Amino acid sequence: GAGVSQSPSNKVTEKGKDVELRCDPISGHTALYWYRQRLGQGLEFLIYFQGNSAPDKSGLPSDRFSAERTGESVSTLTIQRTQQEDSAVYLCASSLVAGAKTEAFFGQGTRLTVV
Amino acid sequence: QQQVKQSPQSLIVQKGGISIINCAYENTAFDYFPWYQQFPGKGPALLIAIRPDVSEKKEGRFTISFNKSAKQFSLHIMDSQPGDSATYFCAASRAGNTPLVFGKGTRLSVIA
């Protein structure tokens, strides 16, 4: 596809269950980011992958959150033992390493509701 | 500690008016300052961006003003239209493909 694709678009899960969110970045983009957006709030950085470098996990809120990326393609964000405060829109973005240009292209997000 | 502070939280502007959104930052290592526009149910999309070597950048009706000494930058939307009604986020990042740090957003409503 032409843009960043995220799935599912919506996910309702019961408290305590694990969820897995998927992100397909734009082909050729080596940088991939996950952000969390709570209702009416700004974007909160979670994790960043850049090529084969070790990911920057400094934004992950707890050890229940983890993410993986296969090479320079698909990434999955996993939330274990979900809590109600995990309810948010999870946004994925990718960018092309091209000198100083750092435009990040965002997907439409996965709206996670924990009930 | 909030690295990028954005104001106002919400803004109502008459059609044809000027919308102004302000942001301030602390980290002098930031060297890339984009503005993103987000419509309901969509992901944010890059609107316009500036680097600190210039004080102003204009693209159509959208202008970024940048004040390096004050560590502030602002978005001006000239001749605001109802279609501009969206949430606007300022952001900043350091050199390279480092993660963007976002402001909390401004919900703009342009009324006819």
Question: What brief labels describe this structure?
Answer:
heterodimer, A: 115 residues, mainly beta, 6-stranded mixed sheet, 4-stranded antiparallel sheet, globular, B: 112 residues
In short:
The complex is a heterodimer of chains A (115) and B (112). Helices cover 0% and strands 46% of the residues of chain A. By secondary structure, chain A is mainly β.
Shape of chain A: globular
Question: What's the SSE pattern of chain B?
Answer: EEEEEEEEEEE
Helical content band of chain B: under 10%
Shape of chain B: globular
Q: What's the count of strands of chain B?
A: 11
Largest sheet of chain B: 6 strands, mixed
Biggest sheet overview of chain A: 6 strands, mixed
Q: How would you classify the helix and strand content of chain B by structural class?
A: mainly beta
* Poorly predicted regions of chain A: none
Number of helices of chain A: 0
Mean pLDDT of chain B: 94
What is the number of E strands of chain A?
10
Mean of residue pLDDT values of chain A: 92
Spans where pLDDT lies below 50 across 5 or more residues of chain B: none
Q: How many helices of chain B?
A: 0
What does this structure look like?
The complex is a heterodimer of chains A (115) and B (112). Chain A is mainly beta and 115 residues long. Chain A contains no helices and ten strands. In chain A, strands 2, 4, 5, 8, 9 and 10 form a six-stranded mixed β-sheet that branches. A four-stranded antiparallel β-sheet of chain A has the order 1-3-7-6, with no helix packed on it. In chain A, β4 (31-37) and β5 (43-50) form a beta hairpin. With 112 residues, chain B is mainly beta. Chain B is built from no helices and eleven strands. Chain B has strands at 4-7, 10-14, 19-25, 30-38, 45-50, 56-59, 62-67, 72-77, 86-94, 101-102, 106-111. In chain B, a hairpin with a 6-residue loop joins β9 and β10. Chain B is globular, with a radius of gyration of 13 Å. The model of chain B has no long low-confidence stretch (mean pLDDT 94). The A-B interface holds A 4, 30-31, 33, 35, 40-45, 48, 50, 56, 59, 91, 93, 95, 97, 100, 102-109 and B 6, 32, 34, 36, 41-46, 49, 51, 89, 93, 95-105.
